[in-house]
Design the sequence.
């Protein structure tokens, strides 16, 4: 069961999440990534961003935090979340219909929304699908 910070309605959280994902997508595009899909809902998880970086298909988990009271944005992508993202990615790959790619990489974009302007940190190859 996931917890949300007190005083935040689900609609507010969705809006903040969408804003964070848009900021992450702009950051990645500036680095030369091509965003091919956003918010892909699968049985095991939602994949926030799917991008191409050269020949790599990059599955991007976006995390936004206003404070580190409940832990850092990057630290919130724990092993359980990594496993869900990896399972969802396997489902996505089985479906097909993706652009050509040579390999798959998992990145995390962590956004500190408590800073002005927000601070975006990109962790390339943040985790692998076979980590147990």
Sequence:
């Amino acid at each position: 069961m996931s917890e949300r910070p007190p005083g935040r309605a689900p609609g507010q959280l969705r809006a903040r999440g969408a804003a964070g994902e848009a900021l992450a997508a702009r950051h990645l595009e500036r680095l030369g990534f091509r965003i091919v899909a956003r918010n892909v809902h699968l049985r095991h998880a939602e994949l926030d961003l799917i991008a191409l970086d050269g020949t790599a298909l990059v599955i991007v988990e976006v995390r936004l935090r206003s404070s580190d009271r409940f832990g850092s944005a990057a630290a919130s992508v724990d092993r359980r979340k990594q496993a869900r993202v990896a399972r969802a990615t396997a489902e996505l790959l089985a479906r097909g219909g993706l652009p050509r790619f040579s390999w798959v990489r998992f990145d995390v974009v962590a956004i500190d929304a408590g800073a002005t302007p927000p601070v975006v940190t990109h962790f390339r190859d943040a985790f692998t699908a076979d980590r147990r």
In short: The first strand starts at residue 34 and ends at 41.
